[in-house]
Amino acid sequence: MSSLLPTEADVQFYRENGYWIAPKILSDEEIELLREHHAKVIAGEYNTQRPPWSRNIEPGQPLDHIVKIDNSYWADSVIARYILHPLIGEMAARLTGAKGIRLWHDQLLYKPPDTGTRGNVGWHQDYHYWQCTDPPELLTAWLALDDVTEENGCMQVVPGSHKWGLLPEGNFFEQDLETLQRRIEEVSGQPWRTVKCEMPAGALSFHHCLTIHGSGPNLSQRPRRSWAIHLMPDGTRYRAGTWSDKHMNVFLLGGKDGDPFAGPYFPLLYREGEAANAWQTVVNSG
Ligand SMILES: O=C(O)CCC(=O)C(=O)O
Ligand SMILES: [Fe+2]
Q1: Given 190, 224, 257, 271, which is the most exposed site by the fewest CB atoms within 10 A?
Q2: What's the gap in Å between 207 CA and the centre of ligand 2?
Q3: Which atom of ligand 1 is nearest to the CA of 126?
Q4: What gap in Å lies between CA 157 and CA 228, rounded to an integer?
């Protein structure tokens, strides 16, 4: 068993607070490799010849606001390899208590330096966008590719907010964090407190899909690069009839209400009792 896995106390912490910060799991060489491939995808150099699902800034356009690229792993073989990192899968399994963990999708993120509030990520609950899933136990592994601090706009979470239910307010692309905070305080009736998820490159944080989170401006002179790997317990089902029927994964599943999200678009990162040695061999020789 890896000593990097969450302890019983860490699991308890996640269940109480809706987030957990994991230690550094990547070597400096691996971080550098992922940074290179992160840059290639942003530049539109897709070594698989396949574009990502979507991107909010086209290759070559100025990087003057938060960059978000969905399913970047389609476009790059190194990113595709790391997305199945078994330690990330096993950490997620421990935190959720699930026997298996599948990929929901990924999001490559780039917060440019010196762009003020245009680099912000508005307060939101991921489940707002994922109402096509049931039960709401999905979670995100947010992997830092740079040291993240308050100065460069680290992610911030509202501890315990995963117990507040799904709120009618929240928007990833909203840049006015204060107004959004007031609206959330109003609809939730709960006191507002945030925790800054500061950590070194190569470490990661996990957050529950109902945990409110967002991030402020990057005031440093360097980009804040990261990669969000959205995960679900094996057995998570399609819940039809909500506005998030528009989600790409409903299209990719091509199923009906109640079908589990499974199949090639939703690979397993981890299943209890199965060894991850094959993956380790591939990564170490790659
Ligand atoms: O990078 C950020 O500031 C926010 C990322 C996010 O919303 C997520 O990983 O779910
Ligand atoms: Fe999010």
Answers
A1: 257
A2: 9
A3: 10
A4: 15
Residue 273 lies in a domain: yes
In a domain, 3, yes or no: no
* CA-nearest residue, atom 1 of ligand 1: 155
pTM (predicted TM-score): 0.96
Mean pLDDT by groups of 10 residues along the chain of 286 residues: 90 98 98 98 98 97 96 98 96 98 98 93 98 98 98 98 97 96 98 98 98 97 97 98 96 97 96 72 48
Pocket test for ligand 1, best of 21, 69, 156, 213 (most atoms within 8 A of CB): 213
Residue 2 within a domain: no
C-alpha of residue 281 to centroid of ligand 2, in Å: 32
Q: How far is the CA of 161 from the centre of ligand 1 (A)?
A: 16
The pair of three-digit structure tokens given for residue 183, joined into one six-digit string: 């609206």
Range of the domain at 235: 8-285
Give the number of domains in the chain: 1
Query: Which residue has its alpha carbon closest to ligand 1 atom 9?
Result: 228
CATH number, residue 110: 2.60.120.620
pLDDT tens digits, 162-193: 999 999 999 999 999 999 999 999 999 999 99
> In angstroms, what is the span from residue 285 Cα to ligand 2's centroid?
33
Q: Is 219 left (phi over 0), alpha (psi -120 to 50) or beta?
A: alpha
Contacts of 224 (CB under 8 A, 6+ apart): 110, 111, 119, 146, 148, 152, 153, 154, 218
In a domain, 217, yes or no: yes
pLDDT digits (tens, 9 = 90+) for 131-162: 999 999 999 999 999 999 999 999 999 999 99
Pick the residue whose CA is nearest to atom 4 on ligand 1: 214
